[in-house]
Amino acid sequence: MSTRNRILDAAAAVLTRRGIAGTTTRAIVREADCSEALSATYFGDKQEIFLAVMSERMPTIDPSGRAKSNLEGAEQLANFVQGVALFFFRSFPIASSV
Q1: Which of 42, 12, 41 is nearest to 27 (CA)?
Q2: Which of 6, 13, 37, 80 has minimal Cβ neighbours within 10 Å of its Cβ?
Q3: CA distance 91 to 72
Q4: Which of the four CATH numbers 1.10.357.10, 2.30.42.10, 2.60.40.420, 3.30.420.40 does domain 3-97 have?
C-alpha cells in the first residue's frame, strides 16, 4: 500500500473515531505510522487530508454495474445514501444530534 493511501486510510479511521474537530494531523500520522513531514509531502494540512478522504473514501455507486430493473437501481441508490449517511454520522458526531 502506498504511503498516501496509508495516510488516507488512517485519516478516515481517526475521523470516524474523533470527528473532524477532534482529529489532529499528529493523530493521523501516528495511526499511519509516518512522520508529519512525510504527510506534508502529500497533503499540506488537515483540511487537504479531509478533502481527500471525502472525495476518495466516501461510498460511491458503482458506475460499471447497470441495474436490470428499477428495483435494483433503487436498492443501489438506497445503499449509497445509507453509506453516505453513516460516513457523515461517524465523521461528524455533532451532526447526528442536530
Answers
A1: 12
A2: 37
A3: 28
A4: 1.10.357.10
H or E element at residue 12: helix 3-22
Count Cβ neighbours within 10 Å for each residue of 36-45 and write b for 16 or more, e otherwise: eeebeebbee
Q: What is the pLDDT of residue 40?
A: 95
Which residue, chain included where needed, has cell 436498492? 75
pLDDT of residue 67: 47
CA distance 3 to 8: 9
pLDDT in tens, the chain (98 residues): 899 999 999 998 998 888 888 899 999 999 999 999 999 999 999 999 998 998 887 665 555 555 444 556 677 777 777 777 777 777 665 555 54
Residue given cell 430493473 in the structure block = 69
Name the residue type at position 69. S
